[in-house]
Amino acid sequence: MGHYLNPKYFTYVDTISTDKFVYPVNIRDLAFSLGISREDLWEKHTRDIDIKETFFDCIPNHVLKKIQHGDVKLLINYGYEGNSIDERDTILYLEKFIVRILNKKNIKPENVYYTDSNLEIDNFRFNSSLNIFSHNYCALDFLTKADNVKEVDTPCNRFLLSDRWENHFFKSDITKKFICYNRLHKNHRYKIVNWLKTNDYLDDGLVSYLEEHNNLKLILEDDLDMKMKLSYDKNYKDHYLKTFFSIVTESYFDSTSRLFLTEKTWKPILNYHPFVILGQSGILKYLKKEGFDIFEDIFDSSYDKVHSKKVRFTMIIEILNDFIKDNNISDLKRLRKKIQTRLIDNKNHFWNSFIPKCEEQLYVNLRRK
Question: What is the pLDDT of residues 330-356, one digit of tens each?
């Protein structure tokens, strides 16, 4: 499970001499791991797809026998972005096919755990006795502490800000109003960046748009290496220092059967920023439920409840337009000072409460009988 293995809850075992353990299989593409080609996934009903070689055929025989006997549990960890049922590469679509494979392998569904990062799967009613639950994989990926891992550079290194930096942050001047990072082209990202450009707001923020589309392409002049990945690879903390808030363009802006948060949402929280999120409806509700301050007194959060993409986008640009237009740099300096404690609390809540909760919940889910 990679970074998820905290010795408080988990330990490695000898699979030959030990019984009563969970055997994890980490997959990058669910359909492919089940031997399903892209053509079959889209051109055939799952009942008409023949079962071919699957990841089950790579499980050691001695482990497979223990799973078949019920002594060992199998964990299928689809550790990637949570897909909606419309994309088919998800348990929401492939549940029956997986059960067919289990029957063929003489494995009872109740001996199998399945998890991915689509938070909506916890709200679905499945037909089988598979143990299905979500996990916040981007949050859990911050688990490994840098001082415990010497040979591997982890995402944690880039986000564990020191108390010294915190003091420096809140004593520094704001020179721009916002950050709006964009890398891969997606329609909602193009629309928001084009809106910023059309309304002459580009100079008010630090805006990147790295894939050219309709003659729109922006790279921050002081960071040409931002043409590389704007995810875990870099934490441009100086950008957060000199800006007040983040316009977060999440991976998805749809309203289908998924709710998925990436590092794009966590980065402003870890860098003392309030935020407006162009993402799926329900993200702010989730953050608030998990104890985060979503700064409703600064940015109207009602857009989060709207399922229509068109209406939600219109509401967001109205919120942004009013805030950018009505607040100058001096206003934002005062506002940052006013909410300083809340910004610090948000960051600390992530490390001290939310991460341990996600970690413990993973353990609890894997203890299900």
Answer: 999 999 999 999 999 999 999 999 988
Domains contained in the chain, number: 2
Task: List 180's β-bridge partners, or say none.
Answer: 207
Between vectors from CA 250 to CA 140 and to CA 275, what angle results, nearest 5°?
Answer: 90
The whole domain housing 105 covers 2-135
Report helix, strand or coil for 109. Answer: helix
Residue 298 CB neighbours (<10 A): 20
The dihedral region occupied by 251, where left means phi > 0, alpha psi between -120 and 50, and beta the remainder, is: alpha
Tokens found for residue 143: 């688990």
Domain final residue pick, 135, 159, 179: 135
Indicate whether 9 belongs to any domain: yes
User: Which token pair is 151?
Assistant: 């040979």
* Residue showing tokens 């402003």: 268
Considering the domain boundaries, does residue 364 fall inside one? no
Which pTM was predicted? 0.90
User: Mean pLDDT highest for which of 176-190, 199-213, 268-282?
Assistant: 268-282
Q: Identify whether residues 98 and 171 lie together within a single domain.
A: no
Per-residue pLDDT at 139: 77
Work out the end-to-end distance of the chain between its first and last CA atoms, rounded to an integer number of angstroms.
Answer: 20
